[in-house]
Amino acid sequence: FTTSLVRQGPNNVLYNMLAAAKRNGSNIDFEILTLSPEGEDSRYTEFKALGIPITCMEYPAGFSSLFHIREIEEKIKCMQPDIVQSANFRPDILLSFMKLPGVIKLSTMWNCPFDEFTTLFSKRKGAIMSAVLLRRLKQFDAVTACSQFIVNRVKRNGLHMGIIYTGVDSGYFSPVTAQERIFARQKLGIETDDTV
Fold first, then answer.
1. Of 47, 119, 127, 134, which sits with the fewest C-beta atoms within 10 Å of its C-beta?
2. Are 106 and 85 in contact (CB under 8 A)?
3. Beta-bridge mates of residue 33
């Protein structure tokens, strides 16, 4: 459950995970629900090519989706999920208010809300959004972060979190040999004992 499938870090990670699951013959059924209309930089067609069912609610940006919370809740219930994972402010807030008996509600934090929201918005608005989000996340069954840094920044607010490190597409990225590492350092003018 996310805002949209715009080409950005969390959606790229999601795509890589789903592509790997499909490639490896996973028997888990995945579905995606998005809130906002897809823009030009969307990965919608790439996700669709994986055979993943996608429901786009196409609500405008902002809080108007709050007026449609029951409609979104019904869409999720029709999917009959075991787990609903949300990412981003609006999906997290909406999911926190939904009554989904027997469904595990999971949120994943990709950034520290204080840092992200105060950078994207004013300090005051960012602080309010952070406080609201952290309070609402206490309604979830589980909250994860992609780094220890985020956990350390957020735990001061009494939110217990686990860590699931971001996966890497091993078909694209792979460890280099010691010789390849030496060659790359030489090419960049970095000494072998320099810390990078």
1. 119
2. yes
3. 55
